[in-house]
Design a protein that fits this description.
By secondary structure, the protein is an alpha+beta fold. It has helices spanning 2-20, 22-40, 66-73, 76-85, 93-97, 120-179, 185-222, 243-285; strands spanning 47-54, 100-105, 110-117, 227-230.
């Protein structure tokens, strides 16, 4: 009961201390919020533009791998020409790189590129150029790999056609043996065994070629080049500074500082009275 009473006294005392200097507690946070909001108008705005790319499924170690593709985008080989073409006023590539964020969504095979710049149109231009350059490089590799599969498919079909012609010839020769009166039965048996072996070989080769041709055709159908999921956006408002958020943060910090200041003033005012009392007592005793 006593502890509860003491707690109530302490709470009432705290409220009393704050109430005595209520204008400080009210005005200081409001002033801080207004000041922060006003300063935000003089801060350089930052706009962001985003481009999203679905990577190709061609199985390339760079352009089909989100983490490797991320490194490719942030490489000096990619960023230096972009910086020069757009005439960006960065001193180094590393300084330019700090304005770019690349998020690799490994499960979805998607890259998201966010570009931050003080001008909305320039931010969009940078994001669009990064997407364009990456897709051009990816498409070059994609077309090369696609051509390899197409060449393989053409070779397989050509070899299948040759095997089919060989099979037709051997079957015709096998039929001709039976009607050939110039051959002895022993010669016919030898020729028949040899031709049957060729026929079996050709049929097996044709069957294997058909399977390989189907696999190559499916690979061509399934191969997808890199695609834009979201083209570079033109930001309609800056990402920063966030004026309202800055004002709220300043208000909270100002309120905390005001409360601290109130209690410090109270503390020093009480201690000053005690020090003066001691000095007066010392003066009387002397």
């Amino acid at each position: 009961m006593t502890e509860r009473y003491d707690d109530e006294i302490e709470l009432i005392e705290l409220i009393r201390i704050i109430w005595q200097r209520k204008w400080l507690v009210i005005l200081l946070p409001i002033f801080a919020a207004i000041l922060a909001y006003g300063i935000s108008f003089f801060m350089t705005p930052t706009y962001s533009s985003t481009v999203k790319i679905v990577l190709s499924n061609m199985g390339d170690p760079i352009y089909s791998n989100p983490l490797a593709a991320k490194e490719e985008i942030l490489s000096a080989d990619t960023l230096t020409p972009i910086m020069e073409r757009l005439k960006l006023k960065y001193k180094t590539v590393d300084e330019f790189k700090k304005t770019i964020e690349v998020t690799a969504q490994k499960d979805q095979n998607i890259l998201q590129v966010d570009v931050f710049y003080s001008d909305a149109k320039t931010a969009q231009a940078i994001a669009a150029e990064i997407g364009k350059v990456f897709k051009e490089k990816s498409d070059q590799v994609f077309l090369a790999k696609k051509k390899l599969v197409e060449d393989l498919l053409a070779t397989l079909k050509e070899q299948k056609d040759l095997a089919s012609k060989s099979l037709d010839r051997n079957r015709a020769a096998l039929t001709a043996i039976e009607t050939n009166g110039n051959l002895t039965n022993e010669e016919k048996d030898i020729s028949r065994v040899r031709l049957l072996d060729y026929i079996v070989r050709d049929e097996a080769y044709i069957k294997d070629s058909i399977s390989r041709i189907q696999d190559a055709e499916m690979r061509l159908i399934d191969m997808k080049e890199a695609q834009f999921v979201e083209n570079a956006t033109l930001p309609d408002r800056p990402d920063s500074p966030k004026k309202a958020l800055n004002a709220v943060i300043a208000f909270v910090v100002g309120l905390m500082f005001a409360l601290l200041l109130v209690f410090l003033i109270e503390y020093f005012s009480k201690n000053m009275h005690r020090l003066r009392g001691k000095e007066e007592n010392m003066g009387l005793s002397s």
